[in-house]
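pasting for ref. prot 1 ->
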Amino acid sequence: MNENLYAEYPETYDAIYAEKDYDAEVEFVLDRFAEVAGGDGDPERALIVGCGTGEHSKRLREEGFEVVGVDKYPAMVERARTKSDAEFRVGELPDLPVDGQFDLVWFPFTVVQHLDPDAVAESLRTAVDHLTADGVLVFDQLVTGEEDIYPRLVTYESDDGTYARLTDVHEVGDSSYRWDSLVFTPDGEFFADTHRLYDHDAAYLDGVCGVVGLSVERHGWYDADADPDESGHAVFVAQNTD
């Protein structure tokens, strides 16, 4: 029994992350986008890589963006298509099934941490290839290996009942972690969700951005006033300088 929350259970994913503050995250990105890119009044195009079930995409559509969302899991893409008229495609970094350029490219909610170190530079280069001349790339990183909070059991209330997730995180290499969780659904079923996460060095990510032609600023977790060095949780806002 080794299934995947993303691949098999998009409804459960939505129940677990129902309290996630998507509104605040989108507001932060829009504020940074306005500050960095300005705008000439023309409709903007946004590319969301790792779009999940489409919550960020839906909100950007409501703000008038032309949105393309990409996710590697067909089940997530199918659920996203029920939420908005954004365009959703199945694909993954570093090779994306999209054409043209975008004013905003966003890798939300630890997408970069699912990339092994060898894939980071190529993936950021892919983002730059799809950015307009003054386009903005946003990506984030959470600290994974907070050993004092694991193992951890969290319950999530929903209209269908109570979901629960028991999670442990193990360091399996230099800044590499294995995420193991058991997810319990209200009907008594449960499944294992396991994947690998990487805590990339922030200075390394800054350096890669510079190499691929991006100027970058780091913020706290979707908070312009928060210090990313205090928690280690960071949002990178990068502008195309080529």
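and prot 2 ->
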Amino acid sequence: MNPKIAIVAGSSRTGSFNRRLAMELARHLAKTDVKLTILDLADYPLPIYDADTEDENGVPNHALDLARQIARQDGLLLVSPEYNSSVPPLLKNAVDWVSRVRRIDDRPVLPFKGLVVGLASISTGQNGGMKGLEAWRPILRSVGAEVITAQCSVPRAREAFDEEGALADDRIRMRFDALLESLVDVSRSLARTMAQD
């Protein structure tokens, strides 16, 4: 079975290194047998999560649409910036809203439950956003996702890409190959299990 995998960058900033990395990883995944979806958070603008807002107005339509997309996937690759050694607010807010969705198209659903998630980052600093990735793990587990062990971060973002937009460092490319292979394999296994249930 061909696994369904989505990629989402945790930044909508023009010129974002994380968006560039997400597009490069999408290019590699497109060469495999996965059914690839690219999710751009700029297409799903959301207010800051507030329980009063949810009580008064319900879950916003953009959160429902994003939850619908995520619920269709076997795997998700989050390419996340690091903000002050933690997660970026744009992506965290999207996860918070999507985690509030309980029904889609009159069917009960928990969008993240059992979803296989891989983590990647890039940063201008020396650690490549690694602290932010570690901060994501308990958050994603708390909403029911299966976060794979393999992850990859790219330091010194301004030097990370060659003239064609590919990752310039062979060792980093090999680590990303291992991350993508693990994400595809575990997602395929989950998709097969779900198909048999």
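The longest helix spans residues 170-196.
The helical segments are 17-29, 51-57, 61-71, 89-99, 130-142, 170-196.
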